[in-house]
Design goal:
The complex is a heterodimer of chains A (379) and B (288).
Chain A (H helix, E strand, L loop, with lengths): L6 H17 L11 H16 L18 H13 L8 H14 L2 H13 L4 E4 L15 E5 L4 E12 L6 E7 L10 E7 L5 E6 L8 E12 L3 E2 L5 H13 L6 H17 L6 H26 L7 H24 L8 H9 L9 H12 L9
Parallel strand pairs in A: 1-4
Antiparallel strand pairs in A: 2-3, 3-7, 4-5, 5-8, 6-7
Chain B lengths: L6 H16 L2 H9 L4 H12 L5 H4 L2 H13 L6 H12 L7 E4 L6 E3 L6 E4 L2 E2 L2 E2 L12 E5 L6 H32 L1 E2 L2 E2 L4 H25 L5 H23 L10 H13 L4 H12 L1
Parallel strand pairs in B: 1-3
Antiparallel strand pairs in B: 2-6, 3-4, 5-6, 7-8
Helix pairs in contact in B: 1-5, 2-3, 5-7, 6-7, 7-8, 7-9, 7-10, 8-9, 9-10, 9-11
Classes of the chains: A alpha+beta (379), B mainly alpha (288).
The complex binds flavin-adenine dinucleotide.
Chain lengths: 379, 288
């Protein structure tokens, strides 16, 4: 066991820290879910990319640094410690790119990765539908084969699509074989959100901002070149993102450690012993998550995979995030209801137990795949 | 960067596991509770042969954690934290035979002073040993003692860590036994383990233990204070004990059923070597 960083990892850390200290905006950017804030966040992504910090783990040919998993975790820690802006390009760089690298054609990689790395094209994940939430495999949006034009015609509706209000491209699953059931006969498509036949309708979230949107598809043509993976193989292709989303890449420990440190600062300013336990438990939770992640990184580096442990992870970080922010609001007392970074963080944290697979669904997975208990009865 | 046991550590854990699985530690614990120390002392000697009593002086805190997790998983009775974690560090040498210690106020009684060859208060021999007091854990025989030895901080932290590791082992055992039970017990025509209320409760235990373990090992490596390990392992093991009892129903509420050994041990260890409130206070003091 050895939790020390190597010389080159330390050098990487120092370089990241120095760059971030010099470049992170002094004032927080306006919310990325406003028109102005979206542009400001895109500009920030551009700046990151120019210094090759936007996608550190990608190959050098695609704006990356070929950073190891350890370096990626280190970078995230530095990033959030520096108070840097949220990542407007998250869906693309963390959720879609691993699939593009694994399943994308060279042409798709060349067309999509560069603009994703610079934040020029922001991506939205289009999985959920009004009738297909937790039970994603019951999705109904369709893809009809169009041999003449060499592609597919999409119809149906997607919803709760984060960033879709201002994003440029979407990735999503459609039922391409009407005869097939559930996980079979689904195809993974990439499409511009301004394509003919697509209507994006913003949805105001709890805080009033249009953080997600519903998307209507009316005879939207997608060429074969924009099918990701083999037609009909969409579920398998998509599930490689699900593991990423729940597991490491969606929520690196850096953000929780930074938030826990800020919570300790808040307690120092307002030392109310009634909430002492909440502060300590938030800090312990962030440390547990940090150390747990090093264990995961060690396992992955040794060739292991995330497996159902991603579900253990997801329940833990999402509940930690809520508890941490609740404690901050407790400490703020009657000021808690007044707009603040803590309040924004709190409101956002409330969605954590819902998105990326609800925590109830994750507990089913933990119980079935890790503990070996009987599977759920299905309707 | 490598946060994983190495081969030697894995081998050591496996050797302990096979010794304990074959040794009927539950029988030893039950006998110990009835003042028959024979089987427990025999087990003590075998564990000492394997090196458990020399880990605090000769190995790293990681090995200490591995040993204590195994002791917790198998509910091995006796003053192990005292003899194999606290005293070797406080005295600067391996303890010969069985010894015990009290450190009022956090460790108010000397555990199993009746079987110990030597009884200490801090690093000094106790001046007197009083009348036995009963513990919720029937295998823990507590004795008030007098004396004026000082607390050895480093030794105390290792004892706290060892207790945390023991809690982790006990929590893991309760979870494993509960998972087995809910797959056998049927009600309303199906295994109770197929009910989501049961599945989710046990999943929460899995999650709590999975995130307590890195704090225990992290504390062994000096990344976080020992108090962090104790709070987290205590919470996780306690959740395991509450959930474990609940999913067993009435059978779990009996002394005869072996689960009781771990339920009562966890309750005792949660406040042993510093209460959760004390350790939370210590963590916070270190942060402010
Ligand atoms: C902030 C936010 C951002 C999102 N971003 C995206 C996005 O970018 N792209 C996208 O495609 N989707 C996105 N989603 C949607 C998200 O993936 C879904 O909300 C989620 O999958 C749950 O689906 P649902 O909302 O339809 O709830 P439902 O599936 O209807 O669930 C409602 C309740 O029932 C419970 N439940 C359902 N099934 C079971 C079961 N088998 N056992 C026990 N309990 C069960 C759930 O846990 C939940 O508590 C986002 C959601 C939020 C809140």
């Amino acid at each position: 066991m050895d939790l020390t960083l190597s010389e080159s990892e330390l050098a990487f850390q120092a370089e990241a820290r120095e760059w971030l200290a010099a470049n992170v905006p002094g004032e927080p950017l306006p919310s990325m879910d406003t028109a102005e804030g979206f542009l400001a966040h895109q500009a920030w992504e551009r700046k990151l990319a120019d210094a090759r910090w936007s996608v550190v783990s990608w190959p050098e040919a695609h704006h990356g640094r070929e950073a190891s998993l350890v370096e990626w975790v280190v970078f995230e820690e530095e990033y959030y410690r520096a108070g840097a802006p949220g990542r407007v390009s998250q869906n693309g760089i963390f959720l879609l790119s691993p699939i593009l690298f694994d399943h994308g054609t060279p042409d798709q990689q060349d067309r999509f990765l560069p603009s994703m790395a610079t934040g020029e094209q922001v991506w939205a994940q289009c999985w959920s539908e009004p009738e297909a939430g937790s039970d994603l495999a019951s999705l109904r949006s369709t893809a009809r084969r169009d041999d003449e034009r060499g592609g597919w015609v999409l119809n149906g509706q997607k919803t709760w699509s984060s960033r879709a209000t201002f994003a440029h491209w979407g990735f999503g699953l459609f039922r391409s074989d009407p005869e097939a059931q559930r996980h079979h006969g689904l195809t993974y498509f990439l499409f511009p959100l301004d394509a003919d036949g697509i209507t994006v309708r913003p949805i105001a979230q709890l805080d009033g901002e249009a953080g997600f949107a519903e998307i209507f598809f009316e005879d939207v043509f997608v060429p074969d070149a924009d099918v990701l993976g083999a037609p009909g193989d969409g579920w398998r292709v998509a599930m490689s993102t699900a593991g990423n989303e729940r597991g490491l890449s969606l929520r690196s420990p850096g953000r929780f450690c930074a938030a826990a440190d800020r919570l300790v600062d808040l307690y120092r300013e307002r030392p109310d012993p009634a909430f002492r336990d909440g502060v300590v438990d938030a800090w312990l939770g962030a440390q547990a998550y940090r150390l747990y992640t090093w264990g995961t990184v060690t396992r992955l580096a040794g060739g292991g995979d995330m497996g159902a442990a991603g579900s253990v992870n997801k329940v833990f970080w999402s509940e930690l995030d809520v508890a941490l922010h609740e404690t901050a609001l407790d400490l703020l007392g009657p000021e808690a209801e007044v707009g603040s970074r803590w309040l924004d963080g709190y409101t956002f944290s409330l969605s954590g137990p819902i998105y990326a697979g609800t925590n109830e669904v994750q507990r089913n997975i933990v119980a079935e795949r890790i503990l070996g208990l009987p599977r759920e009865v299905r309707g | 960067m490598r946060f994983e046991l190495d081969d030697d550590q894995r081998d050591f854990a496996a050797a302990l596991e096979s010794l304990l699985s074959a040794a009927d530690p539950v029988g030893a614990a039950r006998a110990w509770a009835e003042d028959d120390h024979g089987p427990g002392l025999k087990l003590w000697a075998r564990l000492a042969d394997l090196g458990v009593t020399s880990l605090a002086t000769d190995a790293t805190p990681v090995e200490v954690c591995l040993a204590f997790e195994a002791l917790g998983r198998h509910a091995v009775p006796g003053p192990w934290v005292e003899s194999a974690a606290y005293l070797p560090v406080a005295l600067g040498r391996e303890v010969d035979g069985v010894a015990t210690v009290a450190l009022p106020p956090h460790v108010p009684y000397a555990l199993d002073a009746d079987v110990a060859d030597r009884v200490y208060v801090g690093s000094s021999p106790a001046t007197s040993v009083g009348e036995r007091v009963g513990s919720v854990d029937r295998t823990r025989h507590l004795f008030p003692v007098s004396g004026d030895g000082e607390v050895h901080e480093e030794a105390f932290d290792l004892a706290v860590l060892a207790t945390a590791a023991q809690l982790l082992g006990a929590g893991e055992r309760i979870l494993a036994d509960s998972v087995t039970y809910v797959q056998q017990r049927k009600q309303f025509g199906r295994e109770i383990g197929s009910y989501q209320a049961i599945k989710h409760a046990l999943a929460d235990v899995r999650i709590a233990l999975d995130f307590a373990r890195p704090l225990v090992l992290g504390a062994a490596l000096g990344e976080v204070p020992a108090s962090a390990a104790k709070v987290s392992a205590g919470d996780a093991a306690y959740l395991a004990s509450r959930t474990g009892l609940q999913v067993h129903g009435a059978i779990g509420y009996t002394q005869e059923f072996d689960l009781s050994i771990w339920l009562t041990k966890v309750r005792a260890l949660v406040t042993a070597w510093g209460t959760p409130a004390y350790h939370r206070g210590r963590v916070l003091a270190g942060l402010l």
